[in-house]
Design brief:
The protein has about 290 residues and is mainly α. The protein is built from 16 helices and no strands.
């Protein structure tokens, strides 16, 4: 049995339990089930050095929205991502139990997740305690969510003020789009060896590095790998390599958040998959 098959076998009964009982489970019980799934994913990711989004695709199997591709499970990528996110929020199950002992409805927590792991919505200790009291209260879930929306709106009105211009990232946006279109065209119109030559990056280690770091660019909290200086002959690829190197510097976290407002994370992930396909003829033809 392959490690991936073994992982799916471990996750499936937990997922089935969640789907069959989530309408009757308390919010905390749903949260703990998802934590267990996230823990399995986290262990697999760390042991096998695989990008989480790549693993989500492998677990689900079928490309959502596409036909004629074998589906390995019914565990959607969105659900897996949420479980992994929950596992990263709470180091242990006891942490979740201690913070949210009376969580009645999981939907309330789902809407509150940005306050737990998104630096844009970071709360001071007093406000965070207020959040916990709200989530543990006996209020209806719909009322809790309305209050959370007011909180988010008040923060967004500050963090997304007009002084925070996105114009400064227009060059980075254009470079990304140019490279995306370039790589897409190479995969669509060229044979593998011709496409690799035209890309200007023949070192698989560099291609894998770019692919992994694109995943990190799409979502904070994923490991970032150092981008070494390399000599890339193709201008479009060279400009893109320089741009992603700049965006991935730790001090540029705000820039990355702004960049994701210009380029959606799912498009960044799509480019990660395209770049990775250049590492082998099999993957290249599979994407094609």
């Amino acid at each position: 049995m392959s490690p991936l098959t073994d992982l799916i076998k471990k996750i499936t009964p937990l997922y089935n339990q969640y789907k069959e009982t989530n309408t009757t489970l308390s919010g905390l019980c749903s949260l703990l089930l998802m934590w267990e799934i996230g823990d399995l994913i986290k262990e697999f990711v760390e042991k096998n050095d695989i990008a989480p989004h790549n693993l989500y695709r492998q677990i689900y199997g079928k490309s959502e929205g596409k036909d004629n591709i074998v589906q390995k499970s019914y565990i959607t990528r969105e659900f897996q991502g949420r479980c992994f996110r929950i596992r990263n929020i709470f180091p242990t199950k006891d942490t979740a139990i201690n913070l949210l002992p009376n969580l009645k409805d999981f939907t309330s927590f789902r809407e509150a997740m940005p306050f737990f792991d998104n630096s844009v919505y970071k709360l001071n200790n007093s406000k965070f305690n207020e959040l916990l009291l709200l989530l543990n209260s006996s209020k209806k879930s719909s009322d809790i969510i309305k209050e959370l929306e007011v909180w988010k709106k008040s923060i967004n009105n500050i963090s997304n003020s007009r002084s925070q211009k996105l114009d400064n990232l227009e060059n980075e946006k254009k470079t990304f789009i140019d490279f995306y279109n370039f790589v897409y065209k190479l995969n669509k119109d060229y044979q593998y060896s011709e496409a690799v030559a035209a890309l200007g990056v023949s070192d698989n280690e560099i291609l894998i590095l770019i692919s992994k770091n694109l995943t990190a660019l799409a979502q904070e909290g994923i490991s970032i790998y150092e981008m070494p200086e390399v000599n890339i002959q193709t201008e479009t690829s060279s400009r893109f390599y320089s741009t992603i190197t700049k965006l991935l510097k730790p001090k540029d976290e705000k820039e990355r958040r702004r960049f994701r407002r210009l380029i959606p994370p799912e498009r960044i992930i799509r480019l990660s998959v395209l770049v990775n396909s250049f590492t082998s003829e099999y993957l290249f033809n599979k994407i094609k």
